[in-house]
Amino acid sequence: MREADISSKSFTFTFLLSCFESFRKFECGEMVRADVLKIGFGSSMFVMNTLLDFYAKCGENLDVVRKLFEEIPERDVVSWNTMIRTYMSCGEIDSAIRLFESMPERNLVTWNSVVLGLVKGKNMELANKVFQRMPERNNVSWNAMISGYIKLGDLKSAKAIFDEMPKRSVVSWTTMVSGYATTGDIESARRIFSQMPVKNVVSWNAMIAGCVNSHMFDEALSVFHRMLVDGKCKPDQTTLISVLSACTHLNSHEHGKWIESYIRKNQFELSVPLGNALIDMFAKCGDLQNAEIIFRKMSKRCIITWTSMISGLAVNGQCTEAVNLFDTMCLEGLKPDDVIFIEVLSACAHGGLVEEGKRVFNQMVPWLIFLVEQEK
């Protein structure tokens, strides 16, 4: 563009900056900035705001972003909002608040940026003060406050905000369900969940995961069954991983096998987390044949995949096969961790594989030395 001496338009600059932002091409952005000033677009609010946003999102030195902000001759609310958001993301709370208080005018985005920044910084006292001053609020404002209190474990304050909401979104309801479920208050989670006018898959997942985390595995399967009967939301991979965990803890091969057939029937992708959950369920239910079928089907595997399969073989008395699979894993270039070393050594001990145990232990020694040196 520069070499051909093509006249640069404002939309061209903003388009280029968007492209450079995607690839974090800060140096290219600097070149565009030079052209912007040279050609006279320094007075264009749209171009300068885009440039400011580019520098902020590229994580450039805060002083550089601040300097550019100060160079903008006539700032609009977008300029101020970008600078406030940048301060907040850098943890410069005091600077963000000072700028916020000095703004000639504010819009809803301004207020939400400050509230969100304070919530992210876990400063709920100040966030609530700003929230109470807001001339208008939307779901972003309310949900930010609810989420912030829940992350601090303050369910009482979260519920007070929730009760005050004039119109609750599915996100608001789900956040409350998740908050209660995470803290183990399944009764309150169940009550909120039952009152929801509309549920999405995230809502169902929050309730199911809450039951699993509270060791209420039968209840988790019951909620899953109601989800299928309700029929308004289809389970996703997160749902299936949670219910497979419930099956594993209940040692319920029957339920687990049904879920595996549901996965096949509905053509779910065999992702690493889903494959791991299936292997773990089958192996702990003593069905090594199906565990191995899933293991072989997986196009990608992680250390947890191998650990689950090796552990399953060892627990079911196939200790030699467990050691052989460990050797295969090492040959494929995957580095063992402490969990898998313990599983393999345990397999050697239970199977009376003395020589194999010595070999694995000797393989483990350099890894232990490396860990010790890393901690120095």
Automatic annotation (TrEMBL):
<keyword id="KW-0677">Repeat</keyword>
<dbReference type="InterPro" id="IPR046960">
    <property type="entry name" value="PPR_At4g14850-like_plant"/>
</dbReference>
<dbReference type="InterPro" id="IPR002885">
    <property type="entry name" value="PPR_rpt"/>
</dbReference>
<comment type="similarity">
    <text>Belongs to the PPR family. PCMP-H subfamily.</text>
</comment>
<feature type="repeat" description="PPR">
    <location>
        <begin position="76"/>
        <end position="110"/>
    </location>
</feature>
<feature type="repeat" description="PPR">
    <location>
        <begin position="138"/>
        <end position="172"/>
    </location>
</feature>
<feature type="repeat" description="PPR">
    <location>
        <begin position="200"/>
        <end position="235"/>
    </location>
</feature>
<dbReference type="Pfam" id="PF01535">
    <property type="entry name" value="PPR"/>
</dbReference>
<dbReference type="Pfam" id="PF13041">
    <property type="entry name" value="PPR_2"/>
</dbReference>
<dbReference type="GO" id="GO:0003723">
    <property type="term" value="F:RNA binding"/>
</dbReference>
<dbReference type="InterPro" id="IPR011990">
    <property type="entry name" value="TPR-like_helical_dom_sf"/>
</dbReference>
<protein>
    <submittedName>
        <fullName>Pentatricopeptide repeat-containing protein</fullName>
    </submittedName>
</protein>
<feature type="repeat" description="PPR">
    <location>
        <begin position="302"/>
        <end position="336"/>
    </location>
</feature>
<dbReference type="GO" id="GO:0009451">
    <property type="term" value="P:RNA modification"/>
</dbReference>
